Fold Chorismate synthase.
Amino acid sequence: MRYLTAGESHGKQLTTIIEGIPSHLPLLREQINESLIRRQGGYGRGKRMQIEKDLVEITSGVRHGYTLGSPITLVVSNDDFKHWTDIMGEDPLPEDTQKIRRTVTKPRPGHADLNGGMKYGHRDMRNVLERSSARETAARVGAGAVAKVLLKELGIEVTGYVREIAGIVSDVDENLTLQQRREISEASPVRTFDEKAAEKMMHAIDEAKKEGDSIGGVTEVYVEGMPPGIGSYVQYDRKLDAKIAGSVMSINAYKGVEFGIGFEAARRNGSEVHDEILWSEERGYYRRTNRLGGFEGGMTTGMPIVVKGVMKPIPTLYKPLQSVDIETKEPFNASIERSDSCAVPAASVVMEHIVAFELAKAITDEFPADYFPRLKRAVDDYRKEVREF
Ligand SMILES: Cc1cc2nc3c(=O)[nH]c(=O)nc-3n(C[C@H](O)[C@H](O)[C@H](O)COP(=O)(O)O)c2cc1C
Ligand SMILES: C=C(O[C@@H]1CC(C(=O)O)=C[C@@H](OP(=O)(O)O)[C@H]1O)C(=O)O
């Protein structure tokens, strides 16, 4: 399985092409829309999200509610495009262009503007920001939503939520089931558990906004139902935890990844890190604890996968941060742009879908099948086999 996305933030549309989804998987447009709508929400988003109403059009690969096994194309229109037709059109510019050019020459620290401009020779850095914008995560969530449908049919569920914003931590009772995690976090405007922490987070977002600043945080994804042994220890590039980590790091503004207790492992003895192995007639092999977050040797253990990602504060600030105009080489203080002040709640939805895609890819790599019922039989047989090990 693989996918590509295309589209500029203020261009006509976002397009996702997904390859490798087996045929005969039941798939409805509404299942993708549900994910897209969730991504748009969350406290702290800016005015753009009031303009967009992300709804998908499936233009290939699905017929009468089932996948065909051929590439699936998803299209999400940018409603904002109608305000940008003169700036974003594909036709050559007319002679007298001064009025509509409005080139971006002031790079924002923390965004892709300057490096992208130098690399691609774009002296109008709009050509960079249009594609580096996290608008693209809508296209990625579309791919992840399809992956989630496949996983669910195989008894694997994935959910994402917020653990921390601006240093305010929301604890999660580790005994909560996936369903409980999903219900509680969905009900919270900051997509988290502890109501007191949620209040403080919202206050922090309001304060940041007032001060023209931005804040980051930590999101967590929790997965139930992955069979053990998915991924591999035999070659570095087959380790599934490494693939997930790379994928999470590819989300805009993500700066780090942890599995289970993560960096805390550096501060504990081995006896307080490793998860003891138990067996019962009822459950087969299982672990007393899940501090390693569901991975050993690059493979799933069969315990829930618990992975965290850290999102830096958003780079576009109203508060001045020094930069240099590339035309005049003069210093300037931050250009005022419309922006989110905190997108951590939305990013938790993005991360959920990014992880889901990696998992679906790992499953289809492990059990190659072009026909979904054959894939399901292979996974069921494998579950039985490892249960009897
Ligand atoms: C859901 C989401 C929304 C974002 N919204 C904004 C925004 O409104 N303004 C902004 O400057 N950056 C925003 N970002 C972050 C930038 O896209 C990101 O910092 C930029 O692409 C540079 O990439 P890097 O931070 O990974 O180095 C957002 C990120 C995510 C995941
Ligand atoms: C459009 C989305 O997020 C955008 C991500 C983003 C950025 O620089 O990453 C900048 C903002 O866009 P604009 O410049 O149009 O206000 C966000 O709204 C979205 O999530 O759908």
In short: The mean pLDDT is 95. Residues 9, 46, 48, 52, 133-135, 137-138, 252, 338-340 surround EPS (ligand 2) (CB under 6 Å).
